[in-house]
Specification:
Layout: E1 4-10, E2 14-20, E3 26-33, E4 45-46, H1 48-66, E5 73-80, E6 86-89, E7 99-100, H2 108-116, H3 120-127, H4 136-146, H5 150-155, E8 159-162, H6 164-172, E9 179-181, H7 182-185, E10 191-192, E11 197-198, H8 200-206, E12 215-217, E13 220-225, H9 228-231, E14 236-242, H10 243-250, E15 259-263, E16 267-274, E17 285-292, E18 295-304, H11 308-317, H12 326-332, E19 341-343, E20 361-363, H13 371-397, E21 403-407, H14 414-424, E22 427-431, H15 436-448, H16 455-459, E23 464-468, H17 474-494
Parallel strand pairs: 1-5, 5-14, 9-12, 15-21, 21-22
Antiparallel strand pairs: 1-2, 2-3, 4-7, 6-8, 10-11, 13-14, 15-16, 16-18, 17-18, 19-20, 22-23
Bound molecules: adenosine-5'-diphosphate and SN-glycerol-3-phosphate (G3P).
Protein name: Glycerol kinase
Keywords: ATP-binding, Glycerol metabolism, Kinase, Nucleotide-binding, Transferase
Binding site for ATP: 12-14, 265, 308, 312, 409
Length: 496
Amino acid sequence: MTQYMMSIDQGTTSTRAILVNQQGEITAIEQEELPLKYPHPGHVEVDAEFIWRSVLRVMRQVLQKAAVSPEAIQGIGITNQRETTVIWHKETGQPIYNGLVWQSKQSAGICEQLKQQGYESDFQEKTGLVIDPYFSGTKVKWVLDHVEGAREQAEQGKLLFGTIETWLIWKLTGGKVHVTDVSNASRTLMFNIHQRRWDEQLLQWLGVPASLLPEVKSSSEIYGYTDEAILGRAIAIAGAAGDQQAALFGQQAFQKGDTKNTYGTGCFMLMNTGDKAIASKHGLLTTVAWEVDGKLEYALEGSVFVAGAAIQWLRDGLQIIKSASETEELATAVQSSEGVYVVPAFVGLGTPYWNSDVRGSVFGITRGTTKAHIIRAVLESLAYQSRELIQVMEEDSGYKLNKMSVDGGAIQNNFLMQFQSDITGKQIERPLIHESTAIGAAYLAGLAVGFWSSKEELASLRQIDRVFLPQMAEAEREQLFKGWLRAVKAAMAFCE
Ligand SMILES: Nc1ncnc2c1ncn2[C@@H]1O[C@H](COP(=O)(O)OP(=O)(O)O)[C@@H](O)[C@H]1O
Ligand SMILES: O=P(O)(O)OC[C@H](O)CO
């Protein structure tokens, strides 16, 4: 019987289950779109129970459609949208409030307060993060402050907190196992990345009781087994990592300086920095990449909050396209965006600005502007934002990037990939398997159960689909990029 690893990829807008064989090939995939809730401008929430049910559905369907028996599954790896915060009752397993999605800005006021109290540098030194509503810590405080009776119950030890992998492991094990992996823990603003433990001082400043927190585990070990009722057999849950770290692992970026950029709802660029936690001077985050075989490794990360989400806005908000894939043809139907810039700061800007007040803007419209120019400018905005990340990444790390690996839904867009190469002057390497995130989780779990033997074996599985090389003249590149920087500056000035 052919053996497989199963990977669950619970992203912001979709849930996937994937089967991976020993050659590292994806042999089956099942996917569901996930509805988000926007109760107020800037607030993004999700039904955590719905997430759990969607995971159950895709797990069962992927086996059924591929006609693979649960006996053939050697283990499960989980990867997830990070920071998204769920709090639930220990006894009933019921969430006490919607999940607060990473993009959500409810806790902006709490962040301001923490900054005014002068805690910014302490948080940064200990966690590698900046004080921003993006991270889980202030979201937890917001829920405890806003849901009636929540703080009292938390203090009585009746509630549990988890990011999505923690929530899913809890549900998959029938409420037996409350753990997180160290890469997800490093995104909470409550975890000391140097000492590898929850930080009492930070918890006190945030007003979060330690009893809420999961036990921190490595990214590749058996955390527990699925309840038999779920797939008819207890299967080892053997690996977990935040989706961006999993993508770095899935891209076999095992050497210092190896870098990948993921183009999903947001864009996230991570560079492996090995056993060194490098502090950034330009708003990059220092984060845990993974812990495998007792070795903790770090990454530098640049975050763009809105990337593919801007394409979804073209489809669902403006309704000028029917599907994301149409954008390539429409963008190449015009010679250039003719001076139009779209700054898709729908929920503020991440690296290097960390401005949660700025909102989206469109610049440079003339009577001749068509929807093709707007669409092209939106695609270009993903590439401009990513160039800003590369620039600061090179400065802070001291590594010069020759090439960058890419993954995520939007890399199917050849126009975007070519423009990315043009506007950065870098070689862009698109692997054959676009699902680096899910593959990374399968790799992590597979190492723990002996499905694969080593990182070297994993590295040998890499296959490249296409390499994009820069074709734009330096002068044009710099002129276009200057226009982008002006547009960002103007967008921020508008919201001051
Ligand atoms: N051909 C395309 N061109 C541009 N963007 C695309 C294309 N196909 C998908 N996308 C975008 O990619 C995103 C989905 O990527 P995915 O990696 O699945 O995201 P996530 O994991 O954040 O849910 C969507 O926001 C979608 O708009
Ligand atoms: O759902 P994705 O793939 O856009 O990833 C979300 C990130 O993990 C947020 O930090």
